[in-house]
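Key idea: predict the complex, not the pieces.
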Amino acid sequence: HITLKESGPTLVKPTQTLTLTCTLSGLSVSTSGVGVAWIRQPPGKALEWLALVYWDDDKRYNPSLKTRLTITMDTSKNQVVLIVTNMDPVDTATYYCALRRGSSSDVGTSPFGDWGQGTPVSVSS
Amino acid sequence: DIQLTQSPSSLSASVGDRVTITCRASQYISSYLNWYQQKPGKAPQLLVYTASSLQSGVPSRFSGSGFDTDFTLTINSLQPEDFATYYCQQSYSPPLTFGGGTKVEIQ
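Result:
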């Protein structure tokens, strides 16, 4: 049984840096064909993909936020970390981590089959 | 970026109704279109992937179709637990994008 669990602060101040951690259970982040993504959802709004890291440490970022995002993988802890710099009130959202799985050749077109419960983040002074 | 436009943005329906939600991509995405269901306060759940493949455990009243730029999610005989918001998502090319959502409400 695969689970993902997000953790991090619920409140950050404008201009601060947000660090979120996704802990994967039941599957290793270094398993071939695994990708872990971060996706966010502002209150009452749609989902927005932020970043993705694959088992081989290949990384993808949403160009609209790329300069502010860093995604890393810690295989020893089976975790994926997202860092978002220069937080602003418009970044207030629930942040989800989600899992893509497939073969090494088709994971790039796989859906997000498993999701964490999400972690709410508010940005306010 | 590939834009996904869902319609309608919301709809009211009754238990037992057949509901159709459409998703139009701004460019060719082959069959790399996925559908998710989200209930209030919960994470999205995958319903349909690659346009028409039903995720394991999803009831057969859900079905998907489409190719290229036009896609459809159909719910046959709407059940009380189906009242939720539905999102499409393209996995053809990054940046991965989602549609704006369709809220299915009780009439």
